[in-house]
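Late entry, written up from scratch paper. The run itself happened at the end of the previous shift, but nothing got recorded in the book at the time, so transcribing now.
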Amino acid sequence: MGLFSKKKKEETPYKEIMKYHGKSISSAVERAGGEEIALGKKGGISITDSEISVVCDGSQVFRCLTKGAVVCTLMSGNGCDIKGFDSQTNKRRHVICYYAKISN
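Output as recorded:
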């Protein structure tokens, strides 16, 4: 490990990504440039072997490959941050999902 060593590749391990599978969300927004674009409300996060999918209002609003994706919990604990390459457009996207409050 020298001064000019390669930077570690930023990627969340699959085992950690699976913690977000089945989470219910109240809303999802996409950060593009300096803006937040509303993607939808009432939905969930689904994770398969190769893809992360966010569904809102009964339709898929985001899908990215698990390989190369970065997923982490927001500091507030009320949602998660997903960054990854879109499966269809092959562009890097940044989506924030806010968890639904589950009442007992």
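The two ends are 52 Å apart (CA to CA).
(Scratch paper discarded after transcription.)
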